[in-house]
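Exam prep: given the inputs below (a chain plus NAP), describe the expected output before reading on.
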Amino acid sequence: MSTSATRRVCVIGASGKLGRYMVRHALDRGWEVVGVCRERSVPKLADLADRMTIVPGPTNDPEVIRKAAAGCDAVLTVLVPWGVQRYSSGTAQAVLDHAEPGARLVFSCGWHISRDGGDRYPWKFRMMVRVITPLARLARVVDVNDQVEACRRVFASDRRWTVVRGSDLEEGDSQGLPVWSRHVGDPVLASNLTRRVDFALFMVEALDDESLVREAPAIVGRLTPSALSHSAAGTGTEVSAHETEQPGEAS
Ligand SMILES: NC(=O)c1ccc[n+]([C@@H]2O[C@H](COP(=O)([O-])OP(=O)(O)OC[C@H]3O[C@@H](n4cnc5c(N)ncnc54)[C@H](OP(=O)(O)O)[C@@H]3O)[C@@H](O)[C@H]2O)c1
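Solution:
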């Protein structure tokens, strides 16, 4: 395994908004980057193409993933809720099956994924998931349940995984590393907003954070009101960049 200075990382879903941010964070660190995206999306990486290797193909194709992840210390995967072809679960399975032994695996999803059932969702959030899930599936655009299945497979794996659960997202300049908690419903997460660039930053930084191995952190922007008031109440003037909840304190 190489050191973080010489790391080779694979970004799966590299052409999307989150994927592109992850590619940039990795390149900024001087790492070698292999990106996977659908053939038709390769042009979306044109500005970065001379600084990375691009493997075109469906991310749920085991052969595509095997080729792209070969020799990589880490795999950063965007779990896509789009489509109804079991794209997300197929992608997760291909990564679990074909990443190098011992590789660090980090996956993205939303707050709606619950690892242990200990999350307490705001009623508006529950309502939205309840209404959108069947409608979107009916319209054949989004299959939220397939992302649930993808994460179930990751949680059951003995790989060195982290599943990062994103709040609502917005564009904008970085505010720094988001704060996190094990459970949605923790007051620190109440603002429910993270800059996409910082979601990507959290995923990339997670590669070097052993405390996040086999964790499913729910994140929120570090400069959001809820993160700041947690900081003021609990840890003095500075926002705690990482854990807001110690093992055993989970609600
Ligand atoms: N959007 C939010 O508010 C939000 C909130 C919380 C968590 N998240 C999580 O954040 C991650 C990124 O989400 P995002 O909304 O920011 O989108 P994004 O980064 O733009 O990623 C969308 C991805 O979906 C792929 N895609 C689009 N249509 C597809 C299709 N029909 N079949 C297969 N792949 C398709 C895109 O690939 P191409 O480039 O090839 O099109 C791209 O890799 C996801 O894991 C999501 O669950 C999002």
